[in-house]
Amino acid sequence: MSEEFCTNCKQNLKPKRIDGHYILHEIEHILHFERGILYTVRELLIRPGENIKNFINENRSRLVKPIIFIIVTSLIYTLINHFFHIEQSYIKIDGAKDSQFNAINNWVQSHYGYSNIIMGGFIAFWLKIFFKKYDYNFFEILILLCFVLGMEMLMFSVFAIFEGVTKYHLMQIAAVIVFVYFSWAVGQFFDKNRVISYFKAFISYILGMITFGISIMILGVVMNLITHH
Question: Are 81 and 222 in contact (CB under 8 A)?
Answer without folding.
Answer: no
